[in-house]
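User: Structure please.
Assistant: Input sequence and predicted structure:
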Amino acid sequence: MKTIIYAHPYEGSLNHAILTRLTDYFTQTDQAYQVIDLYQDGFNPRFSKEELRLFSRGETPYQLVKHYQQMISHSTELIFITPIWWHQLPAELKGFFDKVMLKGFAYQEAPEWHGLLIYIQKATVITTATLTKSYLKSESGDPIQNNLINRVFTDIGIDPNRTNWIHLGEANTTTDAVRQQFLADLPQLYLQGQS
């Protein structure tokens, strides 16, 4: 089962078009998937006092977090669709990692740290930004490949070698033809990461 984690509030966005293109492709090719739509679900990325009180035990009172964990636990693949704002993931998606990837679900600390999501066989990160991938890597601290894929994914047990980062830079200034070609090519770009 593929689980898509989608993090954009506007249905008219390029990110939403990416979500639609990918889900249409999965439907047409009979691939099972489910969608976590953080904004549509009303996911709150901020910790409450009660959540922080339970955090060190790997527990949560937030039923939506428990639901997301259950969805992920039945998955073999994660696909993230997100913009990059101010050189980073948006707060909604950052909060998803903070609140969902809890101790006992996504990692263990003792006797030494190890990730628990080793059942995730593949991960794909699809991003859009005003910045190109090369600029993000050289000037923005490499927020996706270095920080998210090589660090966060590794810490929760997802092998970086089984991860594909697909990016459309200059998304706001490029032409509609370029955007449409990106959407047309998306299934092939996705498949290229299945090695």
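The chain is about 40% helix and 15% strand.
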